[in-house]
Amino acid sequence: MAAGSRGAAAFAALAFAALPAAAQADDEGRRLFTGVTPACALCHTLKDAGAAGAVGPSLDELRPDRERVIKALRNGVGQMPPFGHLSEAQIQALARYVEAATK
Ligand code: HEC
Q: What is the pTM of this model?
């Protein structure tokens, strides 16, 4: 098991080194998805990010476009709090990532 996970980590490192710039931008969005406070992943399911939250709708099913994500983050929606504490760049990265991950 340990050897297997080391192998997987090595593979991930190699894959990362080979990623084009656009995929690295997605990687930032993926990190934000699980890393902002409160984390999107707490409340939303998104397979690409390994998230299985069930408070809000599954983003895999909702498949929101970029504009819809930006609007939700700026204003909040229903039970979802607004994320006004994020920078414009972070909001853009999240929106781009969620759209791309659910295409
Ligand atoms: C505290 C739980 C919670 C967190 C944290 C949260 N959401 Fe949500 N989110 C919800 C709920 C609940 C809804 C459904 C709101 C409604 O339709 O009334 C929702 C709705 C959405 C929608 C759909 C908006 C629409 O137009 O219907 C998007 C997109 C979304 N969230 C993205 C995110 C992203 C990206 C993050 C992280 C930055 C995040 N959410 C963090 C609970 C959360």
A: 0.84
